[in-house]
């Protein structure tokens, strides 16, 4: 159970960064908590909540950010650029997230320097330490501050804080970028991202709240929580027809069920070179 002490501790920690801050605001619960508490601590004029708009983010994700910003009076800004134009990104190496985050923080660094801001913040939390997260290397290189991680606050506590603050996404499932649906080493294209995004939007419309459409070229491999397999079976003809319409030739249900980060299973994470820093 969270308490006002968690919120007050985060506010004090964030104030120590300086009087003007930029927050990388993706619309996920972690970055939303950081954006909200930073704004509470310093005021909306002193905190820019910046959201990236690129090929691997859906319009749904952007709309969630816009809605939360409007409802909670955040100073919101959209930063547009092409991820597919980032060197090494479209080739989809195992450390793809490093190139993505490095580009994002390069844009946010420029925004911060142009407005004379003191620091850039992200939403990394204590649970991210030790997980395979190449993007944390970019966090370190760009001197991005991570108040949740620095204060030892994990995901469960973040959700409790979000609920206490009345944030509408306090129980929203994690929603990594669409590129994470494409196996490492397979080229990322605008068309593949479009297929995955529309497929998952369709599946959510059937009541499958947390799902993944993994893109294996002609095959769409669906990861669904086993307790919702019955929904897939009920609508299997509609699902098959819709995903074929999107360009897949075959649609497969993964019997192992939903697993966040399942495509990392092919990686050898035993060496330090593969771990987040």
Topology:
Blueprint: H1 4-15, E1 21-24, H2 29-42, E2 47-53, H3 59-71, E3 75-80, H4 96-114, E4 119-121, H5 135-141, H6 147-150, H7 155-164, H8 190-205, E5 211-216, E6 219-224, H9 229-234, H10 236-245, E7 250-253
Parallel strand pairs: 1-2, 1-4, 2-3, 6-7
Antiparallel strand pairs: 5-6
Helix pairs in contact: 1-2, 2-7, 4-5
How would you describe the overall organization of this protein?
The chain has 277 residues and is an alpha/beta fold. It has two domains: 4-164, Rossmann fold (3-Layer(aba) Sandwich); 178-259, 2-Layer Sandwich (Alpha-Beta Plaits). Helix content is 40%, strand content 13%. It has ten helices and seven strands. The protein has helices spanning 4-15, 29-42, 59-71, 96-114, 135-141, 147-150, 155-164, 190-205, 229-234, 236-245, and strands at residues 21-24, 47-53, 75-80, 119-121, 211-216, 219-224, 250-253. The strands form two sheets. A four-stranded parallel β-sheet has the order 3-2-1-4, with helices on both faces. The chain has a three-stranded mixed β-sheet with strand order 5-6-7, with helices on one face. α3 links the parallel β2 and β3. Residues 270-277 have low confidence and may be disordered.
């Amino acid at each position: 159970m969270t308490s006002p002490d968690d919120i007050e501790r985060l506010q004090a920690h964030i104030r120590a960064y300086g009087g003007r801050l930029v927050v990388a605001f993706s619309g996920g619960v972690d970055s939303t908590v950081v954006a909200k508490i930073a704004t509470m601590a310093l005021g909306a004029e002193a905190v820019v909540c910046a959201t990236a708009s690129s090929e691997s983010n859906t319009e749904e994700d952007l709309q969630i950010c816009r809605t939360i910003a409007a409802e909670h009076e955040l100073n919101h800004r959209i930063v547009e650029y092409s991820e597919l134009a980032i060197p090494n990104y479209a080739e989809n190496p195992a450390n793809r997230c490093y190139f993505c985050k490095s580009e994002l923080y390069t844009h946010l660094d420029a925004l911060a320097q142009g407005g004379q801001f003191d620091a850039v913040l992200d939403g990394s939390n204590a649970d991210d330490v030790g997980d395979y997260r190449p993007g944390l290397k970019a966090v370190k290189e760009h001197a991005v501050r991570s108040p949740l991680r620095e204060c030892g606050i994990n995901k469960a506590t973040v959700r409790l804080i979000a609920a206490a603050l009345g944030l509408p996404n306090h129980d929203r499932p994690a929603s990594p970028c669409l590129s994470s649906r494409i196996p490492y080493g397979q080229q990322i294209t605008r068309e593949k991202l479009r297929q995955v995004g529309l497929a998952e939007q369709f599946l959510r419309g059937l009541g499958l709240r947390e799902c993944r459409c993994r893109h294996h070229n002609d095959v769409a491999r669906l990861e669904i929580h086993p307790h919702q397999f019955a929904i897939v079976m009920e609508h299997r003809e509609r699902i098959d027809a819709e995903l074929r319409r999107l360009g897949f030739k075959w649609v497969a249900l993964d019997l192992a069920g939903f697993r966040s980060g399942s495509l990392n299973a092919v990686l050898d994470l035993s060496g330090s070179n593969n771990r987040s820093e």
